[in-house]
Amino acid sequence: MMAMNAKQPFAMHAALQEPKFSSLHSSAEAMRRVCLPAPQLQGNIFGSFDESLLARAEALAAVDIVPHAKGHHHHHHHQPPPFKPDATYHAMSGVPCAAALPHPAALAAHPLPLPHPALDGGDLLEHLSPSLAVGGLAEPPALPAPPPPAAGPLAVGAGPPAAGVGPPGGPAPPPPAAPEAESDPRELEAFAERFKQRRVRLGVTQADVGAALAALKLPGVGSLSQSTICRFESLTLSHNNMTALRPVLQAWLEGAEAAHRDRAAGPELLAGAERKRKRTSIAAPEKRSLEAYFALQPRPSSEKIAAIAEKLDLKKNVVRVWFCNQRQKQKRMKYSAVH
DNA sequence: ATGCATGAGGG
DNA sequence: CCTCATGCATA
User: Fold this and answer.
1) In CATH, what number is assigned to the domain containing residue A189?
2) Is residue A245 a part of any domain in this protein?
């Protein structure tokens, strides 16, 4: 009997992408803004920037054929394939990493050493520069007082039906520590940490938690993936998302601990997961170019994306998605530094 | 722990 | 097309 992965991605999704944050989000937004280079006085100057930057990035990408250079990393593409190998398909390996994954990897930081416009040379994007210089760099640094909706239509899992939180009869489903939950970043941070600690103490993996959420049968709440649980614990989700998930995870935690004490009602807290598939990967050189370009223009137009895609031998959609993801990453909650 | 991707919902 | 919440496949 094969267990078909019949997952029901309950739709919660972006309910409102409008300015629905009160003040916390403002911080995030502010952070993001300050990250951007002053989008002014650009004009033709940027054209040069753009050109040299991308040219350099591409040059770097092209030097993958150098004998050794740094002394690490050796690629193998950029060959003249009859196709467009923008993506590298790797074989799967079914890694049951789960949560307590003993990876000694320490992660490598990406200081993003933005090159200086001192470089010059190829005008690989000559046909791009013009349009970008005047047509794309019109960032309206406006922020017309975001009206705080006050109401919390977060609808974490309240997509289709009206997941009324607080039905008469069994109210107070999500027992938030604070009725008015300020959603303090510190608060969330603290909770995430405690959550992880207790989760580990229960000997439950992130994947297990995600799967177990469905057993809670909370309205609109299905199962989540290990990724999401992990991101929650590491606070790499948007503030909105964190806030929405907190009650759910807290509910699970309580139930799990209860089941732990009383072994008789929590067999669903364990789940096996089997996955098999492949993921497309963007090669390092291409990634570098993309990063360089992103630093200059986080929001390239379709035309620019198409041009970049062609230059890098990537599918346009891949490039577009890459930019989208970059934006999300840059925007993601990381306010644990500035309040 | 993260990268690339899908999809809903809003413009 | 974009933003956002999520997920699968990976390193």
Assistant:
1) 1.10.260.40
2) yes
Nearest one of A46, A50, A44 to A125, comparing CA atoms: A50
Q: Which of strand B's nucleotides are less than 7 A from any protein C-beta?
A: 1-11
Please indicate, yes or no, if residue A107 is contained in any of the structural domains.
Answer: no
* Other beta carbons less than 10 A from residue A270's beta carbon: 12
Cβ of A231 near strand C (distance < 7 A): yes
* Amino acid sitting at position A142: A
pLDDT digits (tens, 9 = 90+) for A22-64: 333 333 333 433 333 333 334 444 444 555 566 655 554 444 3
User: Does A325 contact strand B, using a CB cutoff of 7 Å?
Assistant: yes
Q: Report pTM.
A: 0.61
- Output the DSSP codes for A82-145: SS---SEEPPP------SS-------------PPPTT-----TTTTTHHHIIIII---------
Distance (Å, rounded) from C-alpha A117 to C-alpha A173? 57
A187 near A243, Cβ under 8 Å?
no
User: Closest nucleotide to A98's CA, by C1' atom?
Assistant: B1
Q: Answer yes or no: do A193 and A258 share one domain.
A: yes
CA pair distance A260, A312, nearest whole angstrom: 53
Q: For A68-113, write each residue's pLDDT tens digit.
A: 333 333 333 333 333 333 333 333 333 333 333 233 222 233 333 3
Residue A4: both structure tokens together:
């078909």
H helix or E strand, kind and range, residue A281? strand A280-281
Verify that A218 and A261 share a domain, yes or no. Answer: yes
